[in-house]
Amino acid sequence: MYKRFAVAIAALALSTGTVASASAAEKEPLDVATLNTIKSKFGTLMELANKHDFVALHEMFWQSPSALLVAKSAIPSEGNWAGFWGNEAIDQKLRDIGTSGPVVLAPDYSKLRVVGLTHDVAESYVPMNITVSYAGQDGTPKPFLMIINWLRVGKDWKVASEIILPVPPVPAAKG
Question: Rounded to 10 degrees, what is the CA torsion of 146, 161, 104, 116?
Answer without folding.
Answer: 50
